[in-house]
Indole-3-acetic acid-amido synthetase GH3.1
Amino acid sequence: MISPSSSIMAVDSTLSSVVGASFSEKDAKALQFIEEMTKNVDSVQERILGEILSRNADTEYLKRFQLNGATDRDTFKSKVPVVTYEDLQPEIQRIANGDKSPILSSHPISEFLTSSGTSAGERKLMPTIHEELNRRQLLYSLLMPVMNLYVPGLDKGKGLYFLFIKAETKTPGGLLARPVLTSYYKSDHFKSRPYDPFNVYTSPNETILCPDSIQSMYAQMLCGLIMREEVLRVGAVFASGLLKAVRFLQVNWKQFAHDIETGTLNPKVTDPSVRECMSKILKPNPELAAFITKECSEENWECIITRIWPNTKYLDVIVTGAMAQYIPTLEYYSGGLPMACTMYASSECYFGLNLKPMCKPFEVSYTIMPNMAYFEFLPHDDSSAQDSSRDSPPRLVDLADLEVGKEYELIVTTYAGLCRYRVGDILRVTGFHNAAPQFRFIRRKNVLLSIDSDKTDESELQQAIENASVLLKEFNTSVVEYTSYADTKQIPGHYVIYWELFVKDAANAPTDEVLSQCCFQMEESLNAVYRQCRVADSIGPLEIRVVKNGTFEELMDYAISRGASINQYKVPRCVSFTPIMELLDSRVVSKHFSRALPHWTPDRRR
Ligand code: AMP
């Protein structure tokens, strides 16, 4: 069953009792569905696993583990291994190359979703099947009914959402490979969605579906400005996207004011369908143009969001996980508006939603909906680390059996054929809604640096540094120590790499030109998502800060003074703690920036 229950019983939900508000029949159905799912977590999970295993029983992958038709949890857990992307890569490559036999899924793989997680520098390819769109849409359909419990009147205005499609490619076998949101926005589920007064956007579909991201942003912002009085919520998927929109306004407000004053669209917007739809919306409005000029020409941009869109009730952006670094900047621009983190999802699977979307960012907990996939959890604590060191198989816990306060790594088994797949997210159980555990997103495993959707791990950083240091050889110079920092004080944020150098011959030390080349070389070495974000101006040029000799020893002394063991001390490869940043920054002798954009095309390098 992938649609909310059709029976509208009296809604006895603990959800609806939040405000005791009256709600529409549609909302009542959605809330009832959430209640049913969260009360019956274990039986729903058992059913979902049974469905997945029976429909995929004849796939090459499952046959390999000789389940012999069994669809129960015990057999599944004892026979099917827990895997990573790398383990599945041979199967995924065969599908990408055009093998249409039922390898992972009995249903045809409709396309690949390109995740922001990478493998060997390229986006991971997540197989999906057509019906997954229904599951994703179902989760989306639950968001507004929950929001309506907390924020009344959202049907009286519009949402200004900055939504974009991204480049897509074809695999050698002809399957599309594109991000999950691009797939969703281009689907009929989104394009032909029925009118819903609670989901009216200022951005016409044509502007969202414009493949040129600058023209798309331009048109969406212009619509938002024209409809400023009607806007009740402002959002993007992630916080970084909304800040990018603010910066876009900062750079382009004069042009927007000109377009609005004259009622003519900037000729740089050339996409015919965007021009056509904008011609119906854009009319000369000198008063609005004067207002925008007045607000945007001020030096101080504090509260710019509420100044331009005065009826905004909340920001709809994810600020959990890596995006938490943007909370202070968003608070500055929005005058402290609530930030609603509504859902938790990935290319592999959409997981769940926040049942208290108006809570503070640090209180956000997501409730995984048990109908989305079969979920298991690998305990992520010291005792489980010991277990794995003794090589005992990891003990995976079911959704209904998790303990409050404990941390787990999320493992999914999806309809599209991922079996016991490690997503790489670490979650902490904060409580329950009915029988459904609620999770705080703690972090993604092995991510050192992240500005936008990029995720750089320790080995990628190490490799980038090795590649860049080759340029120092002819100057008899080497990198003695390094660490890194994701600097998000400015938009866009950028990677800062602190280098302590050993220069043998001071007379022949590497110049600024050479060190800038090193910055560029590092960027060239980083993964495809990083390079794409750079090209799209979502990440600024990488910076190397050269620090005085002896700085890293001071860093160690500082750590030891705070209780670190001398024997076990390791240089942190990423820093953010203020006293350490201050120490490093006070020892900087020179700063260097990448002067060119790294190479990026939608095509994969391998
Ligand atoms: P992708 O595979 O590119 O679709 O990215 C999915 C990943 O983004 C998840 O596995 C999480 O690590 C992260 N993510 C998604 N939603 C949230 C959220 N609400 N809060 C924090 N991190 C999230």
